[in-house]
Write a structure and sequence with these properties.
With 318 residues, the protein is an alpha/beta fold. The chain has one domain: TIM Barrel. The chain is built from eleven helices and ten strands. The strands form two sheets. It has an eight-stranded parallel β-barrel with strand order 1-2-3-4-5-6-7-10, surrounded by four helices. Strand 1, helix 1 and strand 2 form a beta-alpha-beta unit. Helix 3 runs parallel beside helix 4, helix 4 crosses helix 5 and helix 7 packs parallel to helix 9. InterPro entries: IolE/XylAMocC-like, Xyl_isomerase-like_sf, Xyl_isomerase-like_TIM-brl. GO terms for molecular function: isomerase activity. This is Sugar phosphate isomerase/epimerase.
């Protein structure tokens, strides 16, 4: 199990990763990233792989997180088309996984969304099987605290079970982020144990929870005004070690279930953010603006690194 972070590739960020001690990266594959799946050439792929290999950095996954069930059919179709290109890119780069959302049609229930999910992700899973890669569905609900709606159905173990019953392919799995489970009141350690064989990738992100504020605001958070950042008034994302997640228990649980992937920090910590969060309009902007900031990444590395189990190559010979 290696320690890394989610970012857009550049030689500078690769140098930072090496200097800090990171040995893993989940790389952005959004159209505006260095790995635009429509245009990146084989020559450029070789250059990126050679650079990271020379630094001992493994690419754990490619990341692309749109709403495949968007109400606008043309928009949804473009997301679906591009995701297929991202899966093909993972195959070209010999990367084992692509991580993404399911999405959610506005105004529909989770049950309403299961039929289009099943049809679409059955096809995605078949293509992933043919390519020899896996799909990791992230569990962020993408909730909007003002209108109380979400943009991703895959946020709870109940729903994961229904997803895997509908699409049993082993190519379909989870990218778990415990911070989302924590604010929803879901036991993230139990979730790891219950779905260990489906965990494709793991995001290391922590969360602050202010019980006093929740007691006043309720689960949905502020009804008035702008809370700023990514929270809803009583919670906010933090770098690992700066919130309520018990990382020793997380790493123990991952080890117990035989997880063979990496632990990659996803920086969304507004306390340590230098970027103007008000300019972030979507998922692609988050990794573009925050995935290269050193402060939260270094602090997260310093906290998690002493807990990471040794790789077999780190062990001394007998």
């Amino acid at each position: 199990m290696r320690l890394g972070f989610y970012t857009d590739y550049s030689r500078d960020i690769a140098q930072f990763a090496q200097d800090t001690g990171f040995t893993s990266m989940e790389l952005s594959a959004w159209p505006q990233s260095a790995l635009n799946a429509d245009h990146v050439t084989d020559e450029r792929i070789k250059e990126i792989r050679a650079d990271l290999d020379s630094r001992g950095i493994e690419i754990s996954a490619l990341g692309y997180y749109p709403n495949y069930l968007a109400a606008d059919e043309a928009e949804a179709a473009e997301y679906q088309r591009y995701f297929r290109k991202v899966m093909q890119l993972a195959d070209r780069m010999e990367v084992p996984a692509v991580c993404t959302f399911v999405g959610m049609t506005p105004g529909w229930t989770v049950e309403d969304c299961m039929e289009p999910f099943t049809a679409l992700f059955s096809d995605f899973a078949r293509e992933a099987e043919d390519l020899g890669i896996r799909i990791g569905i992230e569990n962020c609900p993408m909730l909007h605290h003002k209108n109380r709606t979400g943009e991703n159905i895959a946020f709870s173990p109940e729903i994961w079970a229904a997803m895997f019953e509908a699409v049993p392919s082993r190519a379909l799995g989870l990218e778990i982020d415990p911070s989302h489970l924590a604010f929803l009141g879901i036991d993230y350690i139990q979730a790891i144990h219950d779905f260990g064989d489906r965990i494709v990738h793991f995001h290391a992100k922590d969360i602050d929870i202010d019980e006093r504020k929740r007691g006043r605001l309720g689960f949905y958070g502020n009804a008035f005004g702008d809370v700023g950042g990514f929270g809803n008034g009583w919670w906010r994302f933090r770098a690992p070690g700066w919130g309520v997640i018990d990382w020793r228990k997380v790493i123990t649980a991952l080890t117990d279930v035989g997880y063979e992937g990496n632990l990659d920090i996803e920086h969304e910590d507004e306390v340590f953010a230098r970027a103007a969060l008000s300019k972030i309009e979507g998922e692609a902007d988050i990794v573009e603006m925050l995935g290269k900031e050193p402060n939260a990444l270094v602090l997260g590395y310093r906290y998690l690194a002493p807990m990471m189990p040794l790789d077999s190559t780190d062990l001394l010979p007998h």
